[in-house]
Design brief:
The structure is a homotrimer. By secondary structure, the first copy, chain A, is an alpha/beta fold. Chain A has helices at residues 15-24, 41-54, 67-76, 86-95, 100-113, 134-153, and strands at residues 5-9, 30-34, 59-62, 80-84, 118-123, 156-161, 164-169. The first copy, chain A, is 45% helix and 21% strand. Chains in contact: A-B, A-C, B-C.
């Protein structure tokens, strides 16, 4: 199994920053795969600001749905990819009425075949009270299943709180 | 203190699976105590599916409220019990207008007297923003108090994230 | 850097109790800085009950907004302060239309200059599904940013679950 990493955590817990630092530790050309689609001007601006923050040595791809083929392509080029994030990817899957379990299974199969490390970012969303809306409950369940399956596929799993990592799986990393 | 275990975590974090694995490690007849009542056909089906997943060596009891007497009975027979879960038990207590603090106190007293290990599953629900409804806030507070008191009664406490355990109390277990 | 501590956790996770125990371990005159304002009789009563629980060796100050000057004053007197909590402080800042990022920056600058230890309590609120209200989302983001910045300023960071501490930063403490 290639050394893939899953970075879990809540909103504003420092997941993206952590994933970027982990990717840069590999000293190869890093690629940032954004799953969010820029839907308005405000979002466009935020995305541009994040891109500038990462610096010019980063490539950025927008991949709302077809993660597996994008990862296979980048891995062939020997690049290390950050996928930010699987929560928005899941939300895109549900929006376009794809089956999240099937897509997760495909992603896990792809990860097992890749020769280059991937750092995946995902939200933990199941630690509040039961959501009032059926969609909220459905999303929460799907996210929990996705996180469990990805965690099983990755050699390293970290849980971020307030910018600080806890190691759930693998050796603690700086 | 007999070696009781509390398995905490969010929705779909792998708590039940973990509790079942822990119970099976004792190599005695395991009993699954479900606190949920099958209220409709869909739930009936899900419960049946879970029962099949656990396998035929498991006994299943439905105990929506009277945990202490059920646990005492099973412990006398030398069985190891999984209680899945205290969040639904708490919700049942509140629904039937029982005092959660009193019931928790009784449960803790029972646990201290038992000679066989119990594995209790409970949800952590206090890590989102303040719930909008008064009932939501009341439930969240009651769940937090219950978890603190049970954690104090158990020799092992684990916190599950994405199917992976973090040890909060006791020695790390496989 | 003086030995400041940040105690994070969800609702009813034992944060306040933990902060009080940590403060008492210093064996100097402890001061409890409450950021909540007693708005009604019920709250007045709860605050009085908590005060009695802490005991007579504790001093209590109510500081809804101006934390930096209060902390500087107490540190000069050689006292150890518990700030309970930054979540209500953040909520007060937003209510009075102050800039949370600016106030957090000022607090961090103050902490770096103090010669006496401060124990700060804050809630983790980002581990549920996306809040439905824009204010909820804004609060969640602001709380996450605040927690990250305070965690960077403190030598010790702990995450409480069910009354039990996990060490996020620094050496594990009793």
């Amino acid at each position: 199994m290639t050394d893939h990493t899953l970075v879990l955590g809540g909103a504003r817990s420092g997941k993206s920053r952590r994933a970027i630092v982990r990717a840069e530790s590999y000293n190869v050309h890093p690629v940032y795969i954004a799953t969010a689609e820029p839907l308005d001007d405000e979002m466009e601006e935020r995305i541009a600001a994040h891109r500038e923050e990462r610096g010019e040595h980063w490539c950025t791809l927008e991949v709302p749905l077809l993660l597996s083929s994008a990862l296979r392509e980048q891995a062939k080029l020997g690049r290390v990819c950050v996928v930010d994030c699987l929560t928005i990817w899941l939300s895109n899957l549900m929006h376009y009425e794809k089956d999240p379990d099937e897509a997760t299974h495909e992603l896990c199969t792809t990860l097992a075949e890749l020769g280059a490390p991937i750092i995946l970012v995902s939200n933990e969303v199941g630690l509040g009270i039961v959501p009032e809306s059926p969609l909220g409950r459905r999303f929460r369940d799907a996210q929990g299943r996705l996180n469990q399956r990805l965690a099983a596929c990755c050699a390293q799993v970290e849980f971020m709180v307030a910018g600080l990592p806890m190691t759930l799986k693998g050796e603690p990393q700086i």
